[in-house]
Amino acid sequence: METEAGARATTRPRGRPKVASDAAQRAQIVDVGRRLFLERGYGRATMGEAASRARVSKQTLYRFFSGKAELFAAVVEAHRHSMLALPSAREHASLDDALAAIFRVDIDEAADRERHALLAMAFRESAVHPELGEAILRHGVAKSRADLAEWLEERAAAGDMVVDDAEALAQILMDMMFGAARPPPPFGEAEPAETRRRRLRTCIAVFLDGTRAGADRAGGARRS
């Protein structure tokens, strides 16, 4: 007669169970890569270190990423949502509040410092490693601009805004907001958080004043 333990052994699937899905494992490696680049810098970081810290084999690491440049590009792709919070902010009804959420106007100083750290590292090392700048532009700026342009088009379709060229307006808005959002120390000058928030809210108001539905695009005045 078969024992209970024997029955369990018979029905137990063969082989080592898969611990995590490919998507979860890839996300873990990207997070490890981000922390590694911040700690060691891009030039000194190695794929071997990334594999060791992520507790995966090099074979597994290279199954997801062909090399360090591709891993950094994935880090930038994940990081861009900390700079431009889309698409989660689409639930906001008010244009002002939606844009404040998208550009994370109310972010605290510690989180703001953390999200700027990767960009600061890339800027420092881009002269020696030009692939960093390319990754920031292609996987960060360009995709964020496309997401923002899509959001502007959605609000225009809803009748909230007048949008002639969504890509151009998205770039203008990003230039305004990121130019006004001075990086926190040690990357920029220290200032009260409320001063920063007020300046960003002013940028939003100026942008919306020229794009709200009902604005006279030729003359820049409201239609009566």
Descriptive overview:
The protein is mainly α and 224 residues long. It folds into 2 domains: 19-65, Orthogonal Bundle (Arc Repressor Mutant, subunit A); 85-209, Tetracycline Repressor, domain 2. The chain has 10 helices and no strands. It has helices at residues 4-11, 22-40, 47-54, 58-64, 68-83, 95-102, 109-125, 131-157, 166-180, 193-209. α8 (131-157) packs across α9. The termini are far apart.
Brief account:
The chain is 63% helix and 0% strand. The chain has 224 residues and is mainly α. It folds into 2 domains: 19-65, Arc Repressor Mutant, subunit A; 85-209, Tetracycline Repressor, domain 2, CATH 1.10.357.
* CATH class designation of the largest domain: Mainly Alpha
Which regions contain 5 or more consecutive residues with pLDDT less than 50?
Answer: 7-13, 215-224
Would you tell me the structural class of the helices and strands? mainly alpha
CATH topology (level 3) name of the largest domain: Tetracycline Repressor, domain 2
CATH architecture of the largest domain: Orthogonal Bundle
Q: How is the biggest beta sheet arranged?
A: none
How large is the share of residues in beta strands? under 5%
Instruction: Sum up the overall morphology in one term.
Output: globular
Element pattern in H and E: HHHHHHHHHH
Number of helices: 10
What share of residues is helical?
Answer: 55-70%
The number of distinct structural domains comes to: 2
- Average pLDDT reading: 85
